[in-house]
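Objective 1b: paired records.
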Amino acid sequence: MICKGENVLFQELDAFISSFEEKEGELIAILHKAQSLFGYLPRELQEYIADKIGAPVAKVNGVVSFYNYFTTEPRGKRQISVCLGTACYVRGAEKVLKELKRVLNVEVGQVTEDGVFSIDCLRCFGACMLAPVIVIDKDVHGKVLPKDVKGILEQYREKANVHE
């Protein structure tokens, strides 16, 4: 649930929406901005956006639910994406994913108890030469082995603690 106390975020979203003359036609851009600000797109935020652009909530929800990029569930501060494309899968991505889930004690789509990490799976990053590949935020980690997972995660946990 998004707290209305996050007025700065709503003000930034309002300013972004106001920058468009034809707001409804920019719905995807607005949803990208909203998700980058709030981390996810819960129903109440979709309703807020629908009201601001003068569109039905069903239309906003239809776009959110159509595109895999958009999420209605909170994500961790550090988003881990595991490639399960053919090359990654053949080279052990499933074992890497299993190790990630074991170390973080979460399933795909869940957020760790401390809110730092969440995991999702994608079909191909287009970095097959580096298979198996995981991406954390925008950092690509290639040729990852299950034994590498704990060390990689520690780097990001340290960064999360330093910046907060």
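Objective 1b, second protein:
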Amino acid sequence: MPATIMIVDDSRTMRDMLHRTLEGAGYLVVEAVDGKDGLERLSHLPDPPEAIISDINMPNLDGYGFISGVRSLEKMQKTPILVLTTETDPVKKERAKQVGATGWIVKPFAPAILLKAIERVTA
């Protein structure tokens, strides 16, 4: 069974690009439109996804709140979470790391680099 990757991003265009990239590499993809939606969708999945790709700047619940929420779930404490954002501020990157992010990728993303990052964190 293919590995499942969750995408959490408020941009439809970005979700579509990520979905195509991941699906093309053989992954199953679950999408959420923001952090709040992401936590709700996670609560309905039978098993945790193998990895999560999350934006930081989103309405309702931003990436920091989403990551904190994911890490508060016992079954999700070791799930890799990659932040995919336009932000390059080292303070924001450190904040994401402190709440539990596994890695940080700056948009726009190169599909090959993103897929290597997914392979690395799910190995």
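The longest strand covers residues 4-8. The mean pLDDT is 96.
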